[in-house]
Design goal:
With 132 residues, this protein is mainly alpha-helical. Helix content is 56%, strand content 0%. The N and C termini lie far apart (64 Å).
Length: 132
């Protein structure tokens, strides 16, 4: 059975669309890696052009299906530091999201001896509530 020209055209359209999407994702990923490199080297890490966050295709959940949602406030620059850590994991082949990174941080903090944990808590500036 041979394909009709209409079907071949539709397939080419789909293939072209997928290629454009993949190219855009690759450019965004390269910008994020460059930004992380700058941050890890002590630079400001400003992106050269804005990047869009990938949209989730379906809601996530834990292995048990139960999740708790929290809203958190971050100091200026914390978002860049989070992105740098996410990219560090990505370079090692670990694609994680912010929620996973926060759970990792909780686990690491739980495993610290109490004095080291308290020292870490004291070393981070406390944000004033209600300030934007």
């Amino acid at each position: 059975m041979t394909d009709t020209p209409k079907k071949r055209g539709k397939r080419n359209e789909i293939a072209d669309g997928l290629k454009r999407g993949t190219d855009a994702e690759q450019r965004a990923l390269e910008l994020r890696f460059n930004r992380a490199d700058k941050l890890l080297a002590g630079g400001r890490g400003e992106p050269e052009e804005p990047t869009a966050e990938p949209k989730a295709t379906k809601p996530g959940g834990s292995a048990t299906g139960n999740v708790e949602k929290f809203a958190v406030s971050m100091a200026p620059g914390d978002g860049d530091r989070i992105e740098a850590l996410l990219l560090c994991a990505a370079r090692a082949g670990l694609r994680i999201n912010r929620s996973h990174l926060f759970r990792v941080a909780i686990k690491v903090l739980e495993e610290l001896p109490e004095e080291e944990f308290l020292e870490a808590v004291r070393s981070v500036e406390r944000l004033k509530p209600g300030r934007r």
